[in-house]
Amino acid sequence: MTSQVSSPAEQADGADSTLVGEQRKPAGVKDVHRLDRVIIRFAGDSGDGMQLTGDRFTSETASFGNDLSTLPNFPAEIRAPAGTLPGVSSFQLHFADHDILTPGDAPNVLVAMNPAALKANIADVPRGAEIIVNTDEFTKRALQKVGYAASPLDDGSLDGYSLHPVPLTALTVEALKDFGLTRKEAERSKNMFALGLLSWMYHRPTEGTEKFLKSKFAKKPEIAAANIAAFRAGWNFGETTEDFAVSYEVAPATTAFPTGTYRNISGNLALSYGLVAASRQADLPLFLGSYPITPASDILHELSRHKNFGVRTFQAEDEIAGIGAALGAAFGGSLAVTTTSGPGVALKSETIGLAVSMELPLLVLDIQRGGPSTGLPTKTEQADLLQAMFGRNGEAPVPIVAPCTPADCFDAAIEAARIALTYRTPVMLLSDGYLANGSEPWRIPDIDELPDLTVQFAQGPNHTLDDGTEVFWPYKRDPQTLARPWAIPGTPGLEHRIGGIEKQDGTGNISYDPANHDFMVRTRQAKIDGIDVPDLDVDDPHGARTLVLGWGSTFGPITAAVRRLRASGESIAQAHLRHLNPFPRNLGAVLKRYDRVVIPEMNLGQLAMLVRAKYLVDAHSYNQVNGMPFKAEQLATALKEAIDG
Questions:
Q1: What is the maximum span of the chain, computed from C-alpha positions, in angstroms?
Q2: Is the pLDDT of residue 425 over 80?
């Protein structure tokens, strides 16, 4: 897909879909209405394949050329109790003919595969929206399981919606009656029937899904054929039934993207590709030492597929072993990475401190989730910022980088690698579950657009003693970066001590001297403080008095809220931090230009605490910790109150 130019900057992302055109067809042919955006939510039991259904609809939407943003939402349990509210899994997709930033605040279409899915999601559905329900699952027992005294399909509670009762299960079983499957086996394909119906409703391509099913079930061709048949039956049902009198078109977003080749990408996939690209640009082997943990495990899965790029993946027995192996690989000259979530960072903290002491490049990717302790494994949160900043014993500063969108994870991984390799330090990268599992279009960069990360290893002596002897000092620093030499083990003449005990400046020998410890602590801090990061860009076209400052995955909702406010005539400035340690050098000056600074975070105010402490600015927090991203309308209301205040 190629396109050029950019879409209008003031588009109110996340708003309801707008009817922009209508094509009347000859008698007997259904009408086609054209929309500028649609938000669809697929919801069902965690065994109903809603994530696969949403992913396939997303892939076809991306290939069609729409801009899009997704929000998968699923239980932490591998198989939660069937038909219960805790077992509901959903996938929300927002796609449009212009650039968008969020998965949308409220669905225009809800596909509910059972009563639990309806009850868990109906509060988010605005009146007038379309609801497609699988009537076969609305049995007395299923209704009682989620607290319905009577069927909502019959008691009038859904009268304000455009309700489409469809016996999805029965229609799927009927479509597959000639395939020799048991009823239970045939019922598993009802998600493909629903996908076919929605693909007809919104004129999505079908070839990619059929090709995917043939590939996925290549070893079970009868299952592949059955799923394709169910998918086609859903399409044909939409075409022939009188219940769906209208279909909809959402044109490709031809003005939303710069010219280039695009693909749909999730945050974890973008991080994986960014790490591979960084290793190639540095001409270093990539080593991942990791222990599986939600929502970071997909990075381990993906990198294990790329041995052809010199990638080695090690699934360790626990979090501590994973980072220990990664630090050993860094000592051996690899671009070393460990991936985890918040609980794993806590376990890895001692080894991160060891990496600070040894001054070796190491990437620690924290895909944040709700806490504390085991917390909410499949829900998003931004609550690890203070852990990343201070979660080690002693003075052990580390740089912190945070991507702002799923596609931006690629660039953030490369930036984290640049800092680690240039300054010989561990680097924390803070993504989260929202970015990790969400997806959007990503322009595949040309190789010549990527930075040169080539590293020069120590080759020989670097210091001359008073008697003229040439020796190697492992802690003799580059005067610009304060980085120490990186010496590959086994290089003749470069033997040196490592370990966590304090080192003598220059020689690296063990030292308990108080003055030396003070000097080394201050030097390590000065190295981090001196990292070269870009100045903070501020989007302030109207000379506003209020600034909204964000970091990480709040970028989309904040930007959407700012667009809404500006479209209604309000003046507000926006800035978003990628580098959280060190902060951009101009951050203090930026903050002092505004009367009010508002910092929305999915925590209880961690960035606000740091900003208030460092810059003595009366920054105001707007916080949410419910496991879900902000909604644009919610933020717009809060920011309007700040402007008026």
A1: 101
A2: yes
